[in-house]
């Protein structure tokens, strides 16, 4: 049974960090907006935004080696790391702006200082040294320290050196400005804040079952996940921020801009340690190089996590494969996403990514002993009884058309919007949540162009953001000022 339609300014699908951030930004810019968030689960942040479904790194390029690729001639490209670092500082400005508002009195509930370390062995040492040389010369990474001294590394990461072969050549970089972010807690704070604002509805246990153009906007049919009741929402703008579920919704919309996109789902697992005797010896996020053929999201790392005030360690991720697009999704997600417009790119990606296929097969076949052997490359004296296997969230990597190759597998995030700006979808994964704020600002600029340039929205954005990513990348003084102010407000300053 379908109820009468409701008129809204904005409908957001998915109650994760993306939708919550966009909704708060829009309400700050225009408190009169009437919006609704529709979530299939019975609460917010239950998929990729859940703290145990992601590494919570606060991606800032400080330790993630895949953001500084090395070319065949030995040169290292740092532009992506600089861009992501600046984008993360934009996110921190927004979170700092929210501190003091209802529910945001204790930023340590969602963000805590945790040093970020890059650790390499043997043949990768020259790469790390070159990476440090280039990055530390830029103001965004000026505090980064490099060492090949085993005693220094042992001080930075006490679990990682005892038991290691004394002949093994090792090196590490360290930045004390790193953070651990509980995106689940942050999302819930944003949702709670929204729920107290006039004109905001958050609907759980419902899913979008129909999406079609109507007039200058969209008709969104929403149904309860366990019965036949449904209702129509009439929205001027629709945001598809449902993580892996965004691709099927984009296809449902039928917009020309969404044709040709496909998705490659990758699942993940972690080893998790809650033993205080072990956990308290490691206060860092330590990243190393990925195995050959591994997707960037599978870069091995040993992470301090702070969830609900309690510290744990995560090691992984160990990749796997499933046809689900969401952790709580359906095994039919992948086959049901195949269309005439995307089958060519998907087949081209399958042809050109055999190393990835072999890697995934190898990962799926791993035993617990195999996983522990990988852990011991980081933590040589790790004991099996201290670690348990935990299931991570789903990631859906983007497959898109390419004139030369037919199709490419893209590791990153991409905003797909209709030409008229009435609907947009966010696809992809890492760096994802850490750069949510600049991504959503880009969406607002693209889909609300006239209002974005208006005097009132410009003034409000200037109040929230002292500097945006392009200025932060080029203006050292602005970067230092903004980073210092955000750190102080978020309780990250030492």
From TrEMBL:
Signal peptide start and end residues:
none
| Documented EC number(s) | 1.1.5.4
Q: Which cofactor does it need?
A: FAD
Q: Where are the transmembrane segments?
A: 7-26
> What are the alphabetically sorted keywords of the record?
FAD, Flavoprotein, Membrane, Oxidoreductase, Transmembrane, Transmembrane helix, Tricarboxylic acid cycle
One example of a Gene Ontology biological process annotation = tricarboxylic acid cycle
Q: Any keyword Cell wall biogenesis/degradation?
A: no
A Pfam family that the UniProt record links to this protein:
Mqo
State which pathway it belongs to. Answer: Carbohydrate metabolism; tricarboxylic acid cycle; oxaloacetate from (S)-malate (quinone route): step 1/1
Give one GO term, molecular function aspect: (S)-2-hydroxyglutarate dehydrogenase activity
Q: Which domain of life is it from?
A: Bacteria
Q: Which reaction does it catalyse?
A: (S)-malate + a quinone = a quinol + oxaloacetate
UniProt enzyme class: oxidoreductase
InterPro entries per the UniProt record, alphabetical = FAD/NAD-bd_sf (IPR036188), MQO (IPR006231)
Q: Does the keyword Membrane apply?
A: yes
Q: Which family does it belong to?
A: Belongs to the MQO family.
Q: Which NCBIfam families match?
A: mal_quin_oxido, PRK05257.1-1, PRK05257.1-4, PRK05257.2-1, PRK05257.3-2, PRK13339.1
Supply the name of the protein: Probable malate:quinone oxidoreductase
What species does this protein belong to? Azomonas agilis
Could you read off the lineage of the organism from its UniProt record? Bacteria, Pseudomonadati, Pseudomonadota, Gammaproteobacteria, Pseudomonadales
């Amino acid at each position: 049974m379908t109820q009468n339609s409701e008129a809204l300014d904005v409908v957001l699908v998915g109650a994760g960090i993306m939708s919550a951030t966009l909704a708060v930004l829009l309400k700050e810019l225009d408190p009169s907006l009437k919006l609704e968030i529709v979530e299939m689960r019975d609460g917010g942040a239950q998929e990729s935004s859940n703290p145990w479904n992601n590494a919570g790194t606060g991606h800032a390029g400080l330790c993630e080696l895949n953001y500084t690729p090395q070319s065949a001639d030995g040169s290292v490209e740092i532009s992506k790391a600089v861009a992501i670092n600046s984008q993360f500082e934009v996110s921190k400005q927004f979170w700092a702006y929210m501190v003091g508002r209802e529910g945001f009195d204790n930023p340590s509930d969602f963000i805590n200082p945790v040093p970020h370390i890059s650790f390499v062995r043997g043949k990768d040492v020259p790469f790390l040294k070159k990476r440090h040389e280039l990055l530390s010369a830029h103001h965004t990474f000026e505090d980064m320290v490099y060492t090949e001294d085993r005693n220094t590394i042992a001080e930075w990461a006490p679990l990682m050196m005892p038991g290691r072969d004394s002949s093994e050549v090792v090196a590490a970089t360290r930045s004390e400005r790193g953070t651990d972010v509980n995106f689940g807690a942050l999302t819930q704070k944003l949702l709670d804040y929204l729920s107290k604002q006039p004109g905001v509805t958050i609907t759980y246990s419902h899913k979008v079952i129909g999406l079609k153009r109507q007039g200058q906007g969209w008709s969104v049919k929403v149904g309860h996940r366990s019965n036949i009741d449904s209702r129509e929402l009439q929205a001027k703008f629709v945001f598809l921020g449902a993580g892996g579920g965004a691709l099927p919704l984009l296809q449902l919309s039928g917009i020309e801009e969404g044709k040709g996109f496909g998705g490659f789902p990758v699942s993940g697992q972690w080893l998790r340690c809650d033993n205080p005797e072990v956990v308290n010896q490691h206060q860092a996020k330590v990243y190393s190089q990925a195995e050959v053929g591994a997707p960037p999201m599978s870069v091995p790392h040993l992470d301090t996590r702070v969830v609900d005030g309690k510290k744990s360690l995560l090691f992984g991720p160990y990749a796997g494969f499933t046809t689900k697009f969401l952790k709580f999704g359906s095994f039919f997600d992948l086959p049901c996403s195949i269309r005439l417009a995307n089958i060519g790119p998907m087949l081209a990606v399958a042809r050109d990514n055999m190393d990835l296929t072999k890697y995934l097969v190898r990962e799926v076949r791993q035993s617990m002993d195999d996983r522990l052997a990988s852990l011991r490359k980081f933590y040589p004296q790790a004991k099996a009884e201290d670690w348990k296997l935990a299931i991570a969230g789903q990631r859906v990597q983007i497959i898109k058309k390419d004139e030369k190759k037919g199709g490419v597998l893209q590791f990153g995030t991409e905003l797909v919007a209709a030409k008229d700006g009435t609907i947009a979808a966010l696809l992809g994964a890492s760096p994802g949540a850490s750069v949510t704020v600049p991504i959503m600002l880009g969406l607002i600029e693209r889909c609300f162009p006239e209002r974005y340039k208006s005097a009132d929205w410009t003034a409000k954005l200037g109040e929230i953001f002292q500097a945006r990513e392009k200025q932060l990348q080029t203006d050292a003084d602005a970067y230092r000022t903004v980073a210092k102010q955000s750190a102080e407000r978020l309780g990250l300053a030492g």
